[in-house]
Amino acid sequence: MPADVALLGPAEIRALAARAGVRPTKTLGQNFVLDAGTVRKIVRQADVRPGERVVEVGPGLGSLTLGLIEAGADVVAVEIDPVLARLLPSTVAAHVPGLTVAATDEDAERREVRLTDADGRDRLTVLTADALTVTTLPGPEPTALVANLPYNVSVPVLLTFLERFGTLERALVMVQAEVADRLAAPPGSRTYGVPSAKVAWYAAARRTATVGRAVFWPAPNVDSALVRLDRRDPPTTTVTRGEVFAVVDAAFAQRRKTLRSALAQLAGAPAAAEAALRAAGVDPQVRGEQLDVAAFARIAEQLSAAGRPLPHRPGTVAP
Fold first, then answer.
1. Any known ligand binding at 81?
2. How many angstroms separate the CA atoms of 186 and 196, rounded?
3. Which of these, 38, 187, 297, 298, could form a disulfide with 280 (CB 3.0-4.6 Å)?
4. Which residues contact 281 (CB under 8 A, 6 or more apart)?
5. Is 315 annotated as contributing to ligand binding?
6. Across the 319 residues of the chain, what is the mean pLDDT of every consecutive 10-residue run?
7. Where in the chain is the domain with CATH 1.10.8.100?
8. Which pLDDT value is given to residue 309?
């Protein structure tokens, strides 16, 4: 059942940060949410269910963490900042009646702290680690990702988690408004690009709400937005995801080029690229922004069939 939780307010957030000596840093993309209404909107749009295992990346001072626990979720929070990671368990324990620290596990790579309720249920697990290097999560596999993602790594983190944790049924993330548009962009739109095509491999994405700057501390220089992603099956194909992503990266490396030119190096020559495109049912004179991820998969199949070795890209955006 949902817990009796007191969410954080602006004065308490600033007081917590001051006591811990924490100053939000642009290096880690830290902008803390001050508004409880925004927290509850995120949780509501994520359709968080009581008893559900939810992973949160970048919990910061715990505003969204408490909102997730209030909705009844069991949270595993991944925090790269060791000061914030050590502060979070005590903050949550002070705001959620009946939680106690059950265990603290440390090794050379990461630190885990678990808070349990009176029934022994893990309500919060704090993992001190870089989200981009995490390959396993403690406890049951999560079914949802809900996070205020750091602006500077939002797309790589999202794609990494969709790739590594197949149990994720959906995600609700807050990102920079411009990034939200890219994630949810359909083929043919001005903002469609590498993030759009790669996210579409895993999920259907849509922008659900704009979030103003005033709900953050410090206030960022740009607006934010919420993006909802619902997992779906990838295109049916005989090649790997990594091979498809290699074609996506090449197609957008110089987005003003036609696909015949953009894929020439990958195919070995412009003529070979044209042959593969025609075999895939794609006009060689169009640009990458016109294609959906299924079309990129067909192109990868034709290049593979022609004997072209394709690099295996991971699920993140290209450098």
1. no
2. 7
3. 298
4. 295, 298
5. no
6. 77 89 67 91 97 96 97 97 93 94 76 94 96 95 95 93 98 96 96 97 97 88 94 96 96 94 96 98 97 98 89 57
7. 241-305
8. 79
Helix axes 293-305, 270-279, angle to 10 degrees: 120
Q: Is 31 annotated as a binding residue?
A: yes
Say whether 148 counts as a known binding-site residue. Answer: yes
Q: Is 79 annotated in some ligand binding site?
A: yes
3-state secondary structure the chain: CCCCCCCCCHHHHHHHHHHHCCCCCCCCCCCEECCHHHHHHHHHHCCCCCCCEEEEECCCCCHHHHHHHHCCCEEEEEECCHHHHHHHHHHHHHHCCCCEEEEEEECCCCEEEEEECCCCCEEEEEEECCHHHCCCCCCCCCCEEEEECCHHHHHHHHHHHHHHCCCCCEEEEEEEHHHHHHHHCCCCCCCCCHHHHHHHHHEEEEEEEEECHHHEECCCCCCEEEEEEEECCCCCCCCCHHHHHHHHHHHHHCCCCCHHHHCHHHHCCHHHHHHHHHHCCCCCCCCHHHCCHHHHHHHHHHHHHCCCCCCCCCCCCCC
For the segment(s) 10-231, the CATH number from 3.40.50.150, 3.90.550.10, 2.40.40.10, 3.30.1360.20 is 3.40.50.150
Q: What is the pLDDT of residue 317?
A: 52
